[in-house]
Amino acid sequence: MTQTSLTNQSGPDPLAKGTTVTDRIKSYILQNHLGPGDLLPTEAEICKALEVSRSSVREAVKTLDALDIVEVRHGHGTYVGELSMSALVESLTFRAMLSSRDDLAALEELIDVRQMLEQGLASRIVSSFDDALHEALNDEVAEMKGLAARGESFVDQDRRFHLLLMGPLENQLIAQLTGAFWDVQSIVAPRLGASPADARTTAEAHGNIVEAAARGSVPEFIQAVAEHYEPVRRQIATQIAGPDQGSAAGK
Known about the structure:
By secondary structure, the chain is mainly alpha-helical. The protein has two domains: 21-80, Arc Repressor Mutant, subunit A, CATH 1.10.10; 86-250, GntR ligand-binding domain-like (Four Helix Bundle (Hemerythrin (Met), subunit A)). Helix content is 67%, strand content 3%. It has twelve helices and two strands. It has helices spanning 21-31, 43-50, 54-66, 86-99, 105-120, 122-127, 131-149, 155-166, 172-188, 196-214, 218-241, 243-250, and strands at 70-73, 77-80. The protein has a two-stranded antiparallel sheet with strand order 1-2. The chain is elongated and about 60 Å long. The relative contact order is 0.09.
């Protein structure tokens, strides 16, 4: 693993004055075509090149580390990070939890995005569906149904299902967004108090998604995805209406 020098770079100086230290470090990473795991210059070299204090560099690196743009390995140096969606998950989770005290708007918006993403990609998902994926998804569905019947949660199986569904698209950003959105929902949704019946319905809906894809029917797939999100949408509506109105509506 080679450490790239801050000096003698071709093109505009990525560390030119006029921007924040954080922005200038990001520009350096981009202009040097660095990727996850590549070693950055030392703190002293960055200070010298940017003509800024150690405290400014440390604060910038701390910010970038929180965003997973860089990774600080104590005793070894600072590296380009894995560029995961961890910061997005944390931000969206906090926003959704704040909103849930009022109108649950953020969680409902998140459900909209997840549903639109899967329905919008329906044609590509169905066309790339094969026997191996069919078997893998059916295994997850079988576990979900078994756990739901015992009144247990199926968080891990649910997450794997949606990542498997997007896998054949071979699009890293779609996979990361799918995982990130699912993680946020899984953190916030338990506050809604899903019933055992909702869990069983959700497990069944996953099975319907698989069978629609196996039949090669895009319209059925789109409908199955909508039905999959119906229980959580109903839970949100019940919370918005309040416990008294929700109970009355269920009679």
